[in-house]
Prior knowledge:
This protein is mainly alpha-helical.
Amino acid sequence: MYNWIYPNPMQLQNSINLIASSVEDERSASEFYKWLIDNIPTEKLSTRQSTKIKKIIESIRDDELNHNNMFKKMYTQITGKEAIPEEEAFIPPKSFRLGIEEAMEGELNAVKKYREIIEGLPSPYYRDKVFNILSDELRHANLYNFIYTNISTGNEE
């Protein structure tokens, strides 16, 4: 019935729902980033490595806060309503390494989710915004891989 409409109403509604869920995902991440920064295994790394890892995580955190604002704005522009995320309790990872693994997996899962959002968006303006967020997530996954490699190899300059 809606084959000739792009996006069809079901795709659009799915994108709206996923944007709302992304607002929650991005918001709850701020506590996670603070935990990662506070738990960098400095005893196993050189000062240079620790400083670099901290700067990388802070940069990712800042990107994620920006993504959150973009998703909130997009949700409001498309629906005329404000996205109201549910509060979720933060459960810290058992270790920094496991936190980095969780972060890498989260970034890659976000890429899949954002591709699905793009499929139902009504204009190239919104699709481009989500594509930019999606490309940041791929970059973040690579940065987490860099961190994982550094903490796995230990103290090397």
